[in-house]
Specification:
mainly alpha, 2 helices, about 0% strand, elongated
């Protein structure tokens, strides 16, 4: 067990140094400059504001479309029982035209 522990810990230390040293250096430079990573640049804030407005307008349009779909569905569902009753009473079929095409009063 000790035979593998020394080389394994050595490789782990090399990996930590190779990865950790650049990260520690970048963090130290950021601390020296005094840059707060939580503060966004003004152009990014403006861009995010425009994106938020665009998303809001798209959401509003989708809501209008869905409201129109609900309205159309309600109209069709209210109209369907009337045509079914007319069919049952011997009236004209709901899906066929009332007049034959090409015949009669041509305007």
């Amino acid at each position: 067990m000790a035979d593998i522990l020394v080389p394994l810990s050595g490789m782990l230390m090399v990996v930590l140094i190779v990865v950790g040293f650049p990260l520690a250096r970048a963090h130290a430079k950021r601390m020296e400059r005094g840059v707060d990573p939580k503060i966004l640049p003004n152009d990014l804030v403006d861009r995010l504001t425009r994106m938020e407005q665009a998303i809001d307008s798209v959401a509003l349009e989708v809501e209008r479309i869905s409201e129109g779909q609900r309205f159309t569905t309600r109209l069709l569902s209210e109209r369907a029982p009337e045509s079914i009753r007319a069919n049952a009473a011997g009236g004209a079929p709901a899906n066929l035209p009332l007049r034959a095409p090409g015949g009669g009063d041509a305007r």
